[in-house]
Amino acid sequence: MSHLLSIEDLDRAGIERILDRAESFAEVSGREIKKVPALRGRTVVNLFYESSTRTSSSFELAAKRLSADVVNIRAAGSAVDKGESLRDTVQTLSAYDPAAIVIRSPHAGTAALVVPWTDAAVINAGDGKHEHPTQALLDVFTLRRRLGSLEGLNIWIVGDVTHSRVARSNILAFGGMGAKVTVAGPPTLLPRGIEQLGAAATPSLERLHEADVVYVLRMQQERMESAYIPTLREYAQRYQINSARLRPGQLLMHPGPVNRGLELSGEAIDSDVSLIGSQVQAGVAVRMAVFYELLTVPA
Amino acid sequence: MSHLLSIEDLDRAGIERILDRAESFAEVSGREIKKVPALRGRTVVNLFYESSTRTSSSFELAAKRLSADVVNIRAAGSAVDKGESLRDTVQTLSAYDPAAIVIRSPHAGTAALVVPWTDAAVINAGDGKHEHPTQALLDVFTLRRRLGSLEGLNIWIVGDVTHSRVARSNILAFGGMGAKVTVAGPPTLLPRGIEQLGAAATPSLERLHEADVVYVLRMQQERMESAYIPTLREYAQRYQINSARLRPGQLLMHPGPVNRGLELSGEAIDSDVSLIGSQVQAGVAVRMAVFYELLTVPA
Amino acid sequence: MSHLLSIEDLDRAGIERILDRAESFAEVSGREIKKVPALRGRTVVNLFYESSTRTSSSFELAAKRLSADVVNIRAAGSAVDKGESLRDTVQTLSAYDPAAIVIRSPHAGTAALVVPWTDAAVINAGDGKHEHPTQALLDVFTLRRRLGSLEGLNIWIVGDVTHSRVARSNILAFGGMGAKVTVAGPPTLLPRGIEQLGAAATPSLERLHEADVVYVLRMQQERMESAYIPTLREYAQRYQINSARLRPGQLLMHPGPVNRGLELSGEAIDSDVSLIGSQVQAGVAVRMAVFYELLTVPA
């Protein structure tokens, strides 16, 4: 493996190897001294064309806990303002000989586009509506830690599937690990052909009780160019996940940041069945494992 | 001590313990290699919801000189833009298991609000008009270094007391160390009941010559929602501290950033009696001491 | 040498000493562990009043590869928003006792202005239309590496000379290293008296074939207050450097970021004769050498 662009880059064995390694980094992150020298003196570039707290800080910390030097580049206040093309930016940053470039972009396919322009390992931190593979890996990690395995698990992904790169990556990753995936949401937010990724699709939450895990998607207000739903209030009435809709024993996940009270109720977020905190925590360990796998293991 | 939210968290012995420790860190900051390994491998999060140069860079440097890994989060360009609640942001960042979260916010009480949501030590870097305890500590440190003790000292705090978290913290800290504090400014900028914090209040600078130390506050133009003073020009005429108003032997302080020529004249800033540079310098050592006290000393 | 404000601070021997040192740092940057302990525990402040990707990240990485602690300050979101004067900002940052302050500003002369206000070594990272000395040094480094020497070389600097600090620094540096420099561009973009810096000037590209090196300037749209050229399209027709205008054997340089398709054609950027990638790469090594020279070599 030389890049991580899509969950499709990984077979089940590949995913499990990363998760196993992430277990050992989770142990490092639990120590008082949360640091190993694996990437000392190597450079990681975080190139973010979309605002982000959790993903960018998670990658930053993962790299720092491996002792790498990190350079954070944000679109605002950078040469991007001066109209520099993506290609020129990537080639410029590549001249620093970074071990990895982590890239987030509002455009699908950006991470793959960048690969021929650099010798660095490219890690997709989210490209438009396409994929967000480290999110999927940390979600699988979180579930595997909690339940031992995803084999035969019934996972419902609920909400704005159309605009969600997380949905795409997670359908592939959950399916690849043996889970049965159903996507649910308003028909306008379920993309045609989503079944081809290996998921069942339904506009109704009637059979939500069948789910072992309810994975709620963020309503991507900032990526909705036009009206896909009548009103946010009506969406919340029909699709919000809250304690009235959950049955005991179901686990709750969300990639964050949550629109509290929209796709998810406040009391559900803070309940015992919520794995949201564990997901964020898993993020650093899983990203350390991805860096380690890409940068230190001979291909 | 597990958090630093307010000067009221500290008694005189507690303040003196931090100042003594800051002395040894001031010595470290004077060396060529300004670094000790005390927090190696530990994570400090700086979460700033207001723009800041001096406070944020001072905390950042203090953490780095203790060898911590630092993650800086600013409201602009972060999940805060996506409408994430403070609680969710803090819980997200807490999943990284940081040793400390340093938080600045435009709203009074934010630092205290955050405590139940995290296992990290919370340090208030300024919350609205409420408090700014590390500023008060560095001011006491600066005066103690210069004069040996604050006991019996006559300190005047001049200007926009109403909008000043610095004034509140410093009245408490100066008073707690044995100084006699007077606040002075236009009646509209002197909050009612300020005497209850232990300060005398006067709208006149007539007796300013009695002060040993004149502590000038920043005119908080950005926190003034409506007109508290007729014009800035009139304010400057009546309350600006300049060499005509200072008598020989008085020391001059200001928390910065200064509105040069408004609350303080340029020549006063740059004069021998100004301790402004020493205050900034003290900031790093005092913040190192606060981190050390909170993160390495058993409670 | 205690500061680097202008190429005029350096004689030929001084330039060569920096370039020789940069050679050894280029070797460090080629290693897997790109790090030496030369500035461990010392502080470098990057103070940028203009947006920048390549220059700021290059200085940041250079300092980190020397093991310094780096504090990045950008005008947006800093005390500068609160109207703090440059002097107060510099004095504040100087209270941290930084080894160096790297400063970029839209105003000519800023770096020199700052010197009396700080004990730090001041490095000019671009001051308005005045100078950008580290750019010139990395350009000389790039050419010396490729060709052995600049002695007798024929270098054409093409484009918007008037608004270019790079042009000014490079005329001085190339000339100082024994090259013959010609500047070419629309008469409105060739400043009067430019010959006094030691360059020939021409509005025509007719004799461009005489050049060994064609150094294309960025069209500084953001620094142009009024119309200097009829249209960008006409500029491109008459002055764009592309494969039709280059003859075999000529080397191509550009300080970046490039306006692809304006001053330079896409295919020229990506051709074999382009040294643009080498220039960026040289940036880190040369800036390491500048830090090393200023901060560790007794003056």
What can you tell me about this protein's structure?
3 copies of one chain form a homotrimer. The first copy, chain A, is an alpha/beta fold and 299 residues long. Helix content of chain A is 35%, strand content 15%. The first copy, chain A, has 2 domains: 139 residues, Aspartate/ornithine carbamoyltransferase (Rossmann fold); 147 residues, Aspartate/ornithine carbamoyltransferase (Rossmann fold, 3-Layer(aba) Sandwich). Chain A is built from 9 helices and 9 strands. In chain A, strands 7-6-5-8-9 form a 5-stranded parallel beta sheet, covered by helices on one side. In chain A, α4 links the parallel β3 and β4. Chain A is globular, with a radius of gyration of 19 Å. Chains B and C meet through α2 and α9 of B and β2 and α3 of C.
Biggest beta sheet summary of chain A: 5 strands, parallel
Strand order of the largest sheet of chain A: 7-6-5-8-9
Looking at CATH, the homologous superfamily of the largest domain in chain A is: Aspartate/ornithine carbamoyltransferase
Given the helix and strand composition of chain A, which structural class is it?
A: alpha/beta
Q: Regarding quaternary structure, how should these chains be classified?
A: homotrimer
Q: Calculate Rg of chain A over CA atoms.
A: 19 Å
Give helix and strand order of chain A, one letter per element, not per position.
HEHEHEHEHEHEEEHEHH
Distance between the termini of chain A: 6 Å
CATH topology of the largest domain in chain A: Rossmann fold
Count of spatially separate domains of chain A: 2
- CATH architectural group of the largest domain in chain A: 3-Layer(aba) Sandwich
Query: Helicity of chain A, in percent?
Result: 25-40%
How many helical elements of chain A? 9
The shape of chain A, in one word, is: globular
Give the CATH level 1 class of the largest domain in chain A: Alpha Beta
- Number of DSSP strands of chain A? 9
